[in-house]
Each structure stands twice: as C-alpha cells, then as structure tokens.
Design goal:
This protein is mainly beta. The chain is built from two helices and eleven strands, in the order ααβββββββββββ. One of its GO terms (molecular function) is carbohydrate binding.
C-alpha cells in the first residue's frame, strides 16, 4: 500500500529539504566578508582527482570577470595548495608554500577560511595551513563563493 511510501516521503520532497551541493557551485555570502567571519567547506575528494578550487569573489560577473579576493586551488599531481587573487582582470603573485599537502583522494576534508583584519587564515581539518593577506580593501564586497573541480560537497557554512 502507499502508506509506507508516504511516511518516508518521496525523493522529490527530500531534494527540496536537503538541496544537493552541486559542483560547480556558486553561492552568496550574506553581508559579505568581515573580520571574524568564517567560511566552512566540507567535502570528499574524488577517487582520481586532478584539482579542485575554492574562490571568494566580489559578485558573480563573468564578463567583465568579478574580482577574486582569494582563489585556493588543490593540485594533486604537484601536491600543491596554491592561492592567488585577481583584481581588475590582473592576477597577483601566486603563493604555494605549505608545510604538507592535506588532501587525500576519496577522503573527506574540512576547509575553514577565517577572515581577519589583515588576512585570511586557512585551516584544513583543524590545522592552520597558511595565511593570505588581503589584496582587496573592501571586505564586505567579497560576497560570493565558487567551488569547482574533483570533489563532492557535503556541507557549506
């Protein structure tokens, strides 16, 4: 009978209650960034990853491209976690030094981006990995998060 089915709810209803975090993902950061604000990205690295990226941008515009306050890119072949920014169409100097490469294929991860007055502080699985000093003056203009590449998103906060 349909009674059991109704009690569990249809897959369509579940989809509405728990929207899937589809990659590539683009979402709005309510009120923009400010000192003390933290962005949490939790996910699972794909089985055979090449790379994935997390960017905080000033809007979603593609043409002209929105300023990128920070772009984090995990490169698995080089075992690097690089970061950079792009202002008025110009990419800055890329930073790549890290004490170790924290991501493992087919394993979950937790990235926290903490906004402080002079910098972003990046934590992976609870360990501080590096700082990235702000290149964009107006922190509140940083209002969009974009995530792409070889990962599944499980939680954003």
């Amino acid at each position: 009978d349909g009674h059991l089915n109704h009690a569990l709810g249809s897959p369509v209803q579940a989809e509405l209650c728990f929207p899937r975090l589809i990659v590539p993902f683009c979402g709005h950061i309510k009120g923009g960034m400010r000192p003390g604000k933290k962005i949490l990205v939790m996910g699972i690295v794909d089985l055979n990853p090449e790379s994935f990226g997390i960017s905080l941008t000033c809007g979603e515009s593609e043409d002209p491209p929105a300023d990128v306050a920070i772009e984090l890119k995990a490169l698995f072949t080089d075992r690097q976690f690089v970061r950079n920014s792009c202002i008025a169409g110009q990419w800055g100097e890329e930073q790549s030094s890290i004490p170790y490469f924290p991501f493992i294929p087919d394993q979950p991860f937790r990235v926290e981006i903490l906004c402080e007055h002079p910098r972003f502080r990046i934590f992976v699985d609870g360990h501080q990995l590096f700082d990235f000093y702000h290149r964009i003056e107006t922190l509140s203009a940083i209002d969009t998060i974009k995530i792409n590449g070889d990962l599944q998103l499980t939680k954003l906060g």
